Amino acid sequence: MQGITNHLETLTKKEEHLAGKILDMKKQAVTLNKSRKTTDKKKALQLMKQIKMYETQRAQLDGTMQNMLAQKIAIEGMAMTNETVKVMESTQSAFESGIDLDHAEDVVADVQDAMERQAEIAAAIAQPMDGGMMPVDEDELMEELNMLEDELAEDEELPDLSSLEVATGGLDAVPQMTTAEMLAGAPSAPTSAPTMAAPVADEMDDLLAWAN
Description:
Blueprint: H1 2-33, H2 38-97, H3 101-126, H4 138-155, H5 179-184, H6 198-211
Helix pairs in contact: 1-2
């Protein structure tokens, strides 16, 4: 491939050289043809003949370059085709050596089972815990709560003071007494010290006699 590329570059340079040479010869032929000298006109005809040969050579070079360029393109296309075929072959090998359908189904089933177990674990963790208490009927709890409310309401009731009222008209009917009247009705204080009971006096006499 590299040889074709290098040779195409060489032929291109040679074709450019011939093109420049042919252009110069055409200019010379035109100039000589304008001359009135017979010899100059003959030289102009000779240049035209050489120009034709160089143009033929240039056309051959151009044809050769076209053929080589077509070969280069064909080779590049063939190389690309070969690479494509290799990629397709490797892909086919990968498909053939890959996981079969049964194994893929087993993997999917295992993943599904794992997801279900994880969901069950999450649901178990999310359940409220009673702290070891026995389950209690909510209706029974509500009934007990209502009874407790009734008991507390009874304890907070004020006592009935109606029994303390005097039958003749309540507290207002009680006669009011002055301080002097209250003192006059009180019992008088004793005028002498209380005497000791006889048994106690006898016991005291015995203790004093024993001490002497």
